[in-house]
Amino acid sequence: MLIMVRHAMPAFNAETPARDWHLSAEGRAAAAGVMAWVAAEAPGAMLVASTELKAVETLAPAGEVRRDARFDEVERVEPFGGEFRRLRREYVGGVAHAGWEPRTQVVERFDAAVREHGGGGGPVVIATHGMALTLWLAARIGVGDPVAFWEGLLFPDVLRVDVEAGSVERVDLLS
User: Fold this and answer.
1) Whole-angstrom Cα distance, residue 100 to residue 102?
2) Which string of b and e fits 119-143 if b means at least 16 CB within 10 Å?
3) Fewer CB within a 10 Å sphere, N or C end of the chain?
4) 3-state secondary structure string, the chain?
5) For position 80, what pLDDT does the model report?
6) How many CA atoms within 13 Å lie on the side-chain side of 31?
7) Domains along the chain with CATH numbers
8) What is the mean pLDDT of the chain?
9) What's the predicted TM-score (pTM) here?
10) In 10 A of CB 144, how many CB atoms?
11) Model confidence at 116, in pLDDT bands (50, 70, 90)?
């Protein structure tokens, strides 16, 4: 079983690089809920996260977390605030922004990491980021409209992914 988790809400500010943002109080509470679900639905799962703190902290309530930079968010030059959402929508939709990691490169690194960590047969939970996750799912599963998919992701979000069947199912953590 492959479970993809979009990280919980970070405490963000302009002075700290995004990769170093910790979870907010709201994000820590939400992460605890995600990990309670994981403990019940996928006991003993391997936990893997990007190297960004917000992703690691999202899985940390469940135990030891392996880190893999191939699950990091898209490398990019982006202003804090302002037009960041528009720039990200355009990128996910196919626009090649100067200074942003090529989409094919993101998919290739992400895919290699999924193959490596998901090959053991047991459940794997991967905490990652919205754009990288969306690009990989669009390339490997097909999500219809990648921009709408990305815009619909929650903080956090939990997705059951079956690569062979080509399916993605959102987990409703509130039920």
Assistant:
1) 6
2) eeeebbbbbbbbbbbbbbbbbbbeb
3) C
4) CEEEEECCCECCCCCCCHHHCCECHHHHHHHHHHHHHHHHHCCCCEEEECCCHHHHHHHHHHCCCEECHHHCCCCCCCCCCCCHHHHHHHHHCCCCCCCCCCHHHHHHHHHHHHHHHHHHCCCEEEEECHHHHHHHHHHHCCCCCHHHHHHHCCCCEEEEEECCCCEEEECCCCC
5) 85
6) 26
7) 2-12+26-165 (3.40.50.1240)
8) 95
9) 0.96
10) 9
11) very high
Token pair recorded at residue 155: 């903080």
Alpha-carbon distance values, 150 to 8, 62, 91, 130, 141 (Å): 15, 26, 11, 6, 14
Burial of 67 (0-12, 13-18, 19+ CB in 10 A): middle
Which amino acid type is present at position 136? W
User: What is the per-residue pLDDT across 3-35, written as a single tens digit (0 to 9) for each?
Assistant: 999 999 999 999 999 999 999 999 999 999 999
Residue 113: name the closest of 101, 128, 100, 98 by CA. 128
pLDDT digits (tens, 9 = 90+) for 154-175: 999 999 999 999 999 999 987 6
Task: Give the number of other CB atoms < 10 A from CB of residue 52.
Answer: 24
pLDDT value of position 147: 98
- Rounded CA separation 10/28 (Å): 9
